[in-house]
Write a structure and sequence with these properties.
By secondary structure, this protein is of the alpha/beta class. The chain has seven helices and five strands. The strands form two sheets. A three-stranded parallel beta sheet has the order 1-3-2, sandwiched between helices. A two-stranded parallel ribbon has the order 4-5. Helix 4 links the parallel strand 2 and strand 3. Helix 2 runs parallel beside helix 3 and helix 3 packs parallel to helix 4. The longest helix has 26 residues. The two termini are 33 Å apart. The protein binds 3-methylbut-3-enyl trihydrogen diphosphate and magnesium ion (MG). The site of magnesium ion (MG) has 2 residues, from loops.
């Protein structure tokens, strides 16, 4: 979800207005995904590298995310039977945001509908390092010297039990993944949209879904 800042600057507004508009766009994206029958929707909301931004912007974004969770997402999850899952270094978040995250975490626990995954303080590289350490610790405890398999790595990632993304959609004009799910996206179809995230329209996802349906995925095989 890239381009919030540019969207605001282009209108002579404060960057935080762009993030607020970005939160509104998330609601539309959830609605479109649900209509399309998408089972898992992952949202890259805040990366570990986003902590390099000025404090005012970081805390502004956190405030917007907390309000979004409390006022919009938790009621929506309850009303629509969605499941919610957070990935990323949640300990890096301030206590008040962490409180809203904990509340949101339990909101959809017994639900069975679309799973919404929110990446907060997320870094794919940090996730891989954490998985290595987790595997190492278990192996030392069990004096286990057997070769590590990809399945074991997969089970040690924050996305354990979740399917790999079929497609990744990036807004904002750049064609890069910026540390988003590096291992999980090796076979994902990549879509880069030349528009800013707050300008999201449900039609975008419908078009991408149509294109996706027509793609033949071989996973290295033929046909
Ligand atoms: C993406 O929009 C939202 C977050 C990183 C939280 P940006 O803030 O990166 O917007 P641009 O790229 O500066 O326009
Ligand atoms: Mg950006």
């Amino acid at each position: 979800m890239d381009g919030n800042g540019r969207w605001a600057e282009g209108r002579g507004l404060d960057r935080l207005s762009g993030h607020a508009a970005g939160a509104e766009a998330v609601l539309k994206a959830i609605e479109a995904s649900s209509e399309l029958g998408i089972e898992y929707l992952s949202l890259y909301a805040f990366s570990l590298d986003n902590f390099k931004r000025p404090k005012r912007e970081i805390f502004g974004i956190f405030g917007i995310i907390a309000d979004f969770l409390e006022e919009k997402l938790i009621p929506l999850v309850k009303a629509k039977n969605y499941r919610l899952r957070f990935i990323g270094d949640l300990q890096s978040l301030p206590p008040d945001l962490l409180g809203s995250v904990s509340k949101a975490n339990v909101a959809g626990l017994n639900n069975s509908g679309m799973t919404i995954i929110i990446a907060l303080g997320y870094s794919g590289r940090a996730e891989i390092a954490a998985a290595f350490n987790y595997i190492l610790e278990r192996r030392v405890l069990d004096s286990d010297m057997s070769p590590v398999t990809y399945e074991e790595i997969e089970r040690s990632l924050s996305t354990a039990m979740l399917p790999d993304p079929d497609a990744v959609v990036r807004y904002g004009g750049y064609q890069r993944l910026s540390d988003f799910l590096p291992l999980q996206t090796v076979y994902s179809e990549l879509f880069f949209l030349d528009k800013l995230w707050p300008d999201f329209e449900k039609r975008d996802l419908y078009e991408i879904s149509g294109k996706f349906e027509r793609i033949r995925r071989n996973y290295g095989n033929i046909n």
